[in-house]
Design a protein that fits this description.
β3, α3 (81-90) and β4 (94-96) form a beta-alpha-beta unit. The protein is of the alpha/beta class and 233 residues long. The protein is globular and about 55 Å long. Strands 7-1-8-9 form a 4-stranded antiparallel β-sheet, covered by helices on one side. Strands 4-3-5 form a 3-stranded parallel β-sheet, sandwiched between helices. It starts with 5 loop residues before the first helix and ends in a 9-residue tail after the last strand. It is built from 8 helices and 9 strands.
């Protein structure tokens, strides 16, 4: 079992682990207990009633958070010609084609989001083993394979985030920083929950959102009452 430091243990002692908090109270508690010397990220962990071993129960999508994530997102774009120029004009951090794929194959991964035009997927497809496990592979379902690269770049720069279930059926998504107000964090949380509910697979049976936990980078998890955040049975 990992050993936590004195600061973490002190914060955890102030959280009732048996209680399900209301969203605003939980988010206020996250802010109160954040004690790092940097602006910690606030993250939501959702446990969903799905079995991602079955392809028809994988939950995946994107959501534009009303107040963004509070972090600078580094966007890479695979494109040529006019789409490449449009991506650069929209603020993409890195734009390229075959030479960019070679750079990634050599181990460079200094970016958060990868976008590609459909005609570049033949090149990008060869990077599947590198980008796939890291959640960086462009995909039409998340709006990262498109000829409208300028719009996609601006959306991700403005706070659009991807979510996807892991092998255990959990979803982890950042919804802001502890410097955000409780109201801003709550609105971002509401937007995320709404998007996850919309993405519910038809094959999912029973209770869909099993648990909701919020925490800061260095802080303890605080459980939220699922029915208070758009629970759909």
């Amino acid at each position: 079992m990992p050993k936590h430091g004195k600061r973490y243990r002190g914060a955890a002692a102030q959280v009732d682990r048996q209680r399900l908090y209301e969203p605003e109270e939980a988010l206020a508690k996250v802010k109160e207990l954040a004690s790092a010397r940097f602006d910690e990220t606030v993250e939501v962990a959702l446990r969903l009633g799905v079995d991602p071993r079955h392809a028809d129960q994988v939950v995946r999508g994107t959501v534009t958070l009303p107040h963004g994530t509070g972090r600078t997102v580094r966007v890479l774009v695979f494109a040529k010609g006019e789409p490449a120029k449009a991506a650069e004009a929209a603020g993409a951090d890195v734009v390229g084609a075959e030479e960019l794929a070679e750079r990634i194959q050599q181990g460079w991964l200094d970016f958060d989001v990868a976008i590609a035009t459909p005609d570049m997927m033949g090149v990008v497809g060869r990077l599947g083993r590198i980008l796939g496990p890291r959640g960086l592979m462009p995909n039409p379902k998340t709006g990262t394979v498109t000829f409208e690269v300028a719009d996609a770049v601006r959306e991700f720069k403005a706070g659009k985030v991807e979510f996807r279930t892991d092998k255990a059926g959990n979803v982890h998504v950042p919804i802001g920083k502890v410097s955000f107000t409780v109201e801003q964090l709550k609105e971002n949380l509401d937007a995320l929950i709404e998007a996850v509910v919309r993405a519910r697979p038809a094959a999912a049976k029973g209770q869909y959102i099993r648990s909701v936990t919020v925490s800061s980078t260095m802080g303890p998890g605080i459980r939220i009452r699922p029915t208070a955040v758009g629970q759909v049975a």
